[in-house]
Design a protein that fits this description.
A five-stranded parallel β-sheet has the order 2-3-1-4-8, sandwiched between helices. The longest helix has 15 residues. A hairpin with a 5-residue loop joins strand 5 and strand 6. The chain is globular. Helix 2 packs across helix 3 and helix 4 runs parallel beside helix 5. It starts with a strand and ends with a helix. It is of the alpha/beta class. It has nine helices and eight strands. The chain binds BIS(adenosine)-5'-pentaphosphate (AP5).
């Protein structure tokens, strides 16, 4: 199964991709996570990507197309994978179709996460991520961190706010989503691959809705 999650920032794509990856064993391929890892490692890609990400803009298409093309050749992707945050533009979607076609593969299902912008601002500004184990929390909606960090039980999780989760950058990311990424909804609708979930529901309800869509495949 090759599954694509499309949705605005903060709609819960990452949360649901992690749950599904744990239940189905398909790796979660998050271009956002890969780019943040490249920034932490101070790699050439990270240096190129950082400015775009800090400003809430998209990283140039070819950088992320190369990143994903390389990743999907890895052995753990051979039985399927979840694309979380890629593609994000029509040229990225077309490149993905070409790359998969050359391997006799295709996108099997696209799930669009829909939600109002004002709720997304609350989701993003309250998000906190542990810099040690990578777990994601939310100040208002939970989950809240336990007494010890899963990666270092002797300490609590070390919480940080993502540099792009501040109000002016959130506003820019939402604008970029509507202008550059939302057209993918029509792109995949035309290919009869699109189903939507109401991303404003609870994480458990969204998870159940995703599972219902996948059972129909
Ligand atoms: P990326 O990291 O992909 O960010 P994003 O798409 O903006 O999405 P987020 O990670 O912010 O949100 P999410 O939908 O995963 O929600 P989450 O589950 O975390 O990209 C960052 C940047 O990298 C981009 O701006 C761009 O610069 C660059 N980039 C990445 N991919 C690119 C590409 N393909 N092309 C070009 N540039 C690219 O949830 C958010 C919060 O809400 C969490 O705290 C969570 O706990 C909480 N939450 C989740 N679900 C629920 C729920 N149902 N109810 C209540 N709270 C919930």
């Amino acid at each position: 199964m090759i599954l694509v999650f499309v949705g605005p920032p903060g709609s819960g794509k990452g949360t649901q991709a992690k749950k599904l990856s744990a239940s189905k064993g398909w790796p979660q391929l998050s271009t956002g996570d890969m780019l943040r890892a490249a920034i932490s490692a101070k790699s050439t890609l990270g240096v190129k990507a950082k400015g775009f990400m800090d400003r809430g803009e998209l990283v140039p298409d070819q950088l992320v197309i190369d990143l994903i093309s390389e990743r999907i050749d890895q052995p753990d992707c051979q039985k399927g994978f979840i694309l979380d945050g890629f593609p994000r533009t029509i040229p990225q979607a077309e490149a993905l179709d070409r790359v998969l076609h050359s391997k006799n593969k295709k996108v099997d299902q696209v799930i669009a996460f829909s939600m109002l912008d004002q709720e997304l601002v609350r989701r993003l500004s309250g998000r906190r991520v542990c810099t040690v184990c990578g777990s994601m929390y939310h100040l208002e909606f939970g989950p809240t961190p336990g007494a010890s960090c899963p990666a270092n039980p002797a300490r609590e999780c070390q919480l940080e706010q993502r540099s792009d989760d501040y109000p002016d950058v959130i506003e820019k990311r939402l604008k970029v989503y509507h202008s550059q990424t939302e057209p993918l909804v029509s792109y995949y609708k035309t290919q009869h691959k699109l189903e939507s979930v109401n991303a404003a529901h609870s994480p458990d309800q969204v998870e159940a809705d995703v599972q219902t869509i996948l059972k129909k495949k």
